[in-house]
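Reposting from the mailing list since nobody answered there.

I have sequence plus structure tokens for a pair of proteins and want to know whether others read the tokens the same way I do. The first protein:
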Amino acid sequence: MKIYTRGGDDGTTGLYFGGRVAKTDAPIEVNGAVDEAQAALGAARAWAERGGEVDALLVSVERDLWVLMAEVATSEENRRKLVDGASKVTAAMVERLESEIDRLSAASEMPREFVVPGEDHLSAALDVARTVVRRAERVAVARRVEGSYVGPYLNRLSDFVWALARFAEGPRHRTARAGD
């Protein structure tokens, strides 16, 4: 199977459920930024213990980003074809991130000052991924769709990645560092 189609040689790309738009159109810009975020999360995941908690959490949100990108790549007239949780971001997906943020925050005392990234490879990679997610969120703001949870999901995802980075720093960072 060839991975190239030549369909995009004219500067357009296909949408989910059909149709073509310019590669510079807002939804494609959003998906490009989200694709970068997903790759950054994957790079961070490469530092995590295989099969461990951080690995599983990252795989879960990377899969969520496929759902998000499907929604973004759907034209307005085809939005009715989207399926909650499969090709459309839901409130439950956002709430799941909030629950994970709360759980991770409870397991690790959160810093009381700005974090200096670079404590270890995994947390540093997560901090980079968080900044890429934030950029994706800023790009997504340009394509707000009424009733869509894309923006809230990306907003929570950046918080989740920050909390996950603090959690990944390990038990020695799960206590207050005041007075160190």
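The second protein, same order (residues first, tokens after):
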Amino acid sequence: MQGYNCIMVFTKEKDRLLFCYRTSDPYLGKYNLVGGKIEPGEDGFHAAYRELFEETGISKEQIILSHMMDFTYYNQNCYVEVYVGILNCDVRLRREKHPLSWLPLSENFFDLERFAGEGNIGHMVEQVRIYGMGLLSIPKQSKNG
């Protein structure tokens, strides 16, 4: 089963959330959270920090990630690990492929015309708002091995 991650990055003021604007499929022309593939045997936290740095230039020293939730898609033979963090300093973003944007938390993240994920982004934002960020960076076994 292929693993993926998506990472919710909040500004240090906790008033905006980081998105990439998809310039290719899947989700061409929509905002999505940053993230990517978890390599076989790779620890989930390691993969999240690696993908975050590759896609944005945000380093492990600038944010502490928490593991908030997972989605398993048996019909697509994959799972998604969701990580959340609040920046501890101002950052200069460095995009890998897709343009990056900070969007205010007043956005309707359930808007399927603007946001990827079939409503999951809205669900994840609400989970953080109501229940908090999840478990801190405690390494866990990868689902691959």
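Reply #1 (J.P.):
I read it the same way you do. The helical segments are 44-56, 120-131.
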